Amino acid sequence: MKMPTNIIPAIRQIKDFEKALESSSKWIIFLETRIGQLKSLVQYAKRKNKNVLIHIDLIQGLKADEYGVEYLVREVKPDGILSTRGSVVESVKKHKLIAIQRLFLLDSLSLENNVKISGRYKADYIEVLPGKMPEIIQDIHEKTDIPIIAGGLIKKKSEVHAALNAGAIAISTSCTDLW
């Protein structure tokens, strides 16, 4: 399943769920929710023809490990899983779901280490946070040859355009004005 170039609504609060479903994006990301709500939310989103990505590290009541991935695959049935953990990305790949490695960039050392990790686990996509650094987006894509999603702190259309022009294939944002 290929991700198109667009803005992907990242749902941080359940009150934004309906707005995400009304967006033109075929994709949505669940960032923060409780494990007890997740299955029904995913089923509802799929009935509305949305592809669902879940950030496993942020689901309350679910451990971000191989058993957590197995639970999501068998019970919740998302289209893909995001994580900051390489071992989780590796587990997601074994289950043949879309695996997205989320990278938080703090300095040049974290950039270097994250590029090494991404190369080792071969995620399908890398989500770069903060996504407001076009030069870094381009650099990571060149070093890994993995498609980049820009996320974090993007609140203006000009920032969306800058990230896309730098080579990002999509923008993930919880800023509902951009959806």
UniProtKB/TrEMBL annotation:
Alphabetized GO MF terms: RNA binding; transcription antitermination factor activity, RNA binding
**Biological role:** Regulates expression of the glpD operon. In the presence of glycerol 3-phosphate (G3P) causes antitermination of transcription of glpD at the inverted repeat of the leader region to enhance its transcription. Binds and stabilizes glpD leader mRNA.
Q: Which organism is it from?
A: Pseudogracilibacillus auburnensis
InterPro entries with a match to the protein in the record = Aldolase_TIM, GlpP
Instruction: Tell me one GO biological process term.
Output: glycerol metabolic process
Q: Which keywords fit this entry according to its UniProt record?
A: Glycerol metabolism, RNA-binding, Transcription, Transcription regulation
Protein name stated in the entry = Glycerol uptake operon antiterminator regulatory protein
PANTHER family in UniProt: GLYCEROL UPTAKE OPERON ANTITERMINATOR REGULATORY PROTEIN
